[in-house]
Design brief:
166 residues, alpha/beta, 7 strands
Length: 166
Amino acid sequence: MLQNALHFMWEPYHYTIVGVPGSYAEIYAQLYGFNFVSLTESQIKIENDMITGVEEGTTAALLKKAVGMTIIGANGKPLNDSSVVSTGDTASDGTNTYTIVVLGDIDGDGFVDSYDCLLLKKALVGSYKLEGAYLRAACISSSDTPDSLDYLRLKKHIIGTQSLYS
Ligand SMILES: [Ca+2]
């Protein structure tokens, strides 16, 4: 027990932080001399006031680790580590708040399913208006407005022929 404690005190620089390049996690690692491993295989990005590139099924614990922020649910309270994040949840570094965009989760329930497909279809024919993070979640091929190609990709993801995230 004591040995472990001393080891911790004497060798504090062997810890590694895994995170998004440019995030607070990286600054923290640099500040305290920890190793920093970039989440290069991940598409998670901080863009203006949004966190994009989040895949369906990402847990609050994983996103928290990636961006170094507190993840807050729609009810305004921090999410449990095991909770899956949804479009419309937010992340806060104490100063700034960012809205989370789960690619393909257009209705903000955390899952990409046929209801998201239906909403996108309605948006494409003009009978439903998508805004903010929900609009961004529908822009699969990263343009500013969703189109029929995005609809097709969403459909393929749902039937399992091609993942949105591949
Ligand atoms: Ca959804």
